[in-house]
Amino acid sequence: MEDLKQAYESLGLPETATKEELENRYYLLMRRARSQKMRENPDSAAETAVDIDKISEAYRFIRDYEENQAKAEFTAQEYGKFKGMAEKAQKWDHFFHYYKFHLLIGIVVLVAIGFGIKAYVDHREEQERLAKLPPIDLSVMFYGEYYYGEGFGSDTDPLGEAILSQFPDWKRVKADLNYVPSEIRSSQDTALLEKSVIILIDNKSDLFLVDKANFEKLAAQDFFLPLDTYAGAGAGELPKAGDPRALSMKTEDGDAEHVYGIDLSNTPLGRQLGVNGSKEFIAGIKVTAARPEQATKFILHYLNEAK
Q1: CATH number for the domain that contains residue 237
Q2: Residues 255 and 222: beta-carbon distance below 8 Å
Q3: pTM here?
Q4: 11: domain range?
């Protein structure tokens, strides 16, 4: 088929025919062709034979022409403003249309890689910084309904410095604080409580300062060192069973009570270190503490401060 005019003539239609007229004429000719084919001896004088190949070619030619015209009009409307760059703009538009999800995934992957690299670099820098610091003399965890600084997540390095100032012969104290709500009042409290449980799994603090409720929970689980059987430096100076400052408990698997905590609530500890919230400060040495002697020294220091 050479041109549009010839295609319309093959179908017996004027060039002004609508799309609906084109479809109706094509299907009419196709039905006529099938009808003629079913007859064994068609009367060619009464009815002109329909050339299926010719009308199909003409129909496809007209449809392709109309489709190309529609694309050209759309391109002119959407990309005409780009003038000489219209073709390139169209290609970019198609590219982003068909590959937008690939691009989004690629961007997410790149961002993840970027964050991963930054986290790795930050970790290496932090490790290098810590390597230059003196060895830790004592690590302390405030675990309970305590506040420090401006609220949750505050920097606790100043807390460590405040403790260090009480012990001139020490070089470094690592201090942490984990807020544990005494009651669940909101979804935030639930999240904080779950976080506090997770923190205990990997925490390696030597000394824990807790409120009474958390002391009873942890002591019952053999979390603290039994101080009445501890024989390290300064152990003989610690309050014994019967002293109101010595808190005894029976663990879940134990048969007898032991002293697991020393009550420092009546000492200047909280005020001196700037720790607010609960007024209960019970000191317990973690059963796996790497520096129980220094933890004992801390306890004795504040017991003496109360005298």
Answers
A1: 3.40.190
A2: no
A3: 0.61
A4: 4-82
Cβ 25 vs Cβ 11: under 8 Å: yes
Q: In a structure prediction context, what are the per-residue pLDDT tens digits for the chain, which is 307 residues long?
A: 568 888 888 888 888 888 898 888 888 888 888 887 777 555 554 556 778 888 888 888 888 888 888 777 766 666 556 555 555 655 666 666 667 787 788 889 999 999 999 998 888 887 887 778 889 999 999 999 998 877 666 789 999 999 999 999 999 999 999 988 887 888 887 888 888 888 888 889 999 999 999 999 999 999 999 999 998 898 889 999 889 999 999 888 878 899 999 999 999 999 999 999 999 999 999 999 999 999 999 999 999 987 6
Residue with tokens 């009042």, as numbered in its chain: 185
**Nearest C-alpha neighbor of 299 from the set 265, 276, 249, 251:** 265
Is 89 inside a domain boundary?
no
Number of domains in the chain: 2
Three-state DSSP class for 212? helix
* Structural domain contains residue 220: yes
Candidates 70, 28, 78, 68; CA nearest to 52 is: 28
